[in-house]
Amino acid sequence: MEAKVRTAPNDFEIIHIPAASWAIFDSIGPMPGAIQDVTKRIFSEWFPATGYAHPEYELEVYLPGDPGSNDYHCQVWIHVNKKL
Hints:
Elements: E1 21-28, H1 33-49, E2 52-53, E3 58-62, E4 73-82
């Protein structure tokens, strides 16, 4: 099967992210504070307490809804590797 060639506008860059293991964290609350709090806790609490390292990629996944509402749901996806 031949891979499809994808194009992007000139002011965008296409980044190919290889298959990886991801830790996914939910964020509930108004943006941007809720996701900033979750991200801060991931790096200050979760990583030090686990055997994982953050090698390269992270994504913020914004789901449908009102980002200003107290029950807005989004996610932080962190690319992880086991520490050696």
